[in-house]
Amino acid sequence: MAASCSWRCCPSSSAPCAPCAAPAARMPRTCPRPSPAGTLPGSPSSPAARSWGSTSFSNPFMNKFFPANFPNRQYQLLFTQGSGENKEEIINYEFDTKDLVCLGLSSIVGVWYLLRKHWIANNLFGLAFSLNGVELLHLNNVSTGCILLGGLFIYDVFWVFGTNVMVTVAKSFEAPIKLVFPQDLLEKGLEADNFAMLGLGDIVIPGIFIALLLRFDISLKKNTHTYFYTSFAAYIFGLGLTIFIMHIFKHAQPALLYLVPACIGFPVLVALAKGEVTEMFSYEESNPKDPAAVTESKEGTEASTSKGLEKKEK
Fold first, then answer.
1. Is 99 a catalytic residue?
2. Per the residue annotation, which of 96, 99, 184, 202 is the catalytic one?
3. How far apart are CA 266 and CA 234, in angstroms?
4. Catalytic site residue 202?
């Protein structure tokens, strides 16, 4: 019966799955499986069944801007395929009124950018892309970060000083792939049209390295963020040096030429002073978003728990 059974219990059901006893306790193999926002759940038996789930896509930071008595209601967007016992979920998305407000404001900025190509709208999109890039991209050790930054250091220097391709593309390509800073802001105000530019790669690439150092700080369990603050200050220093050199020589500068030595050199010097160079370069973490790593962690925990119970019984 259990081998040929076409039903199974969903994780939320407390009924035993093997006998598939009561019809009320049975769910089809394509029953919805919860998943975090923006990710696909584990593949069900039917390849056509896909379920997207979320409780809210707005950042918790945005909730601070809503008053406590804000009338927040929950909504669900549900698309299914088939009928009866063969019904399968295609999309299952949950959101609330705060999400709709954020979506409306974002849409206004999007329309503003499409109609005017204004530099403020461009920078809002650029900052949003950069924050998401730092959040989604992940480095698992400092050595990998140094190799990545070193390779892009050479790449950036070659394409800016060796050719005019990078500068030409940055000036001619109309898309929020860069942050722009008006140099004639005092003269023309919001209608400024002479800009200095910073590519989003010069933000995201050092940003994921700085985020790695923050996680390293937390792993030390010293309740200090020394390496994070050092690398963050180093980034500001490197960016300021880039702007200074650019104004002195009146020529486009590869930002990574100054950012990479600063973001790597300053934390390494701090590690040398504190005697933690070995800990820094031996630090490695598994990707928390990797299902395999999560599964292995759970299996290891269960194995250690069972061993502990066996020792107690003996």
1. no
2. 202
3. 6
4. yes
